[in-house]
Amino acid sequence: MATFTANPATVTLTAPAGPYRRADLEIHGVDHSRASFQARLFINNPGASAETPPSDRSYAGSFWVFGHGGCAGDAGHCEPPSSRRAFDLRPEHQLTPMSKRVMITGRLRELVQPGAAFTVSIVPYVRPESADRLPEALLTDLLQFDRVDLLAYQ
């Protein structure tokens, strides 16, 4: 039995200064090679953890990652290639990092003044009954990504 310990990440962004119709967070380079999980986003709540419920006022949305559950191949088998030829028509490697988008318009307007800096805590969550069946290696440092962008639409 493994114990899941969340490894939340906090990023600082700046809210749009002018009017906007919609605001999205884009999380790029999300690793999905380990266990499946839900990533919960909290605005201006740096203390958010896996125990912080979605009913919390700072909750802004979530995204899900269907994990691959580790690699069973030879060394290097599960590593996506670092580059591809220009006209390579084959599908991408199955473990190429993905991007996720979460619409946060309502919570951003409610919790952050226009033009103000704010933090987004991204907290991975694995249901306890699922974590009990997984090896520790699949649950360690579960949340990994490259960058977060805020997109605002006028």
User: In percent, how helical is the residue content?
Assistant: under 10%
- Structural class designation: mainly beta
- List the secondary-structure elements in sequence, H or E: EEEEEHEHHE
- Cross-sheet strand order for the largest sheet: 1-6-3-4
Q: What kind of sheet is the major sheet?
A: 4 strands, antiparallel
- Residue windows where pLDDT falls under 50 for at least 5 positions: none
Number of strands: 7
β-strand amount: 25-35%
Question: How does the overall form come out from the CA principal axes?
Answer: flat
SS summary, helix count: 3
Mean pLDDT: 90
CA distance, first residue to last residue: 49 Å
The Rg value, from CA coordinates, equals 17 Å
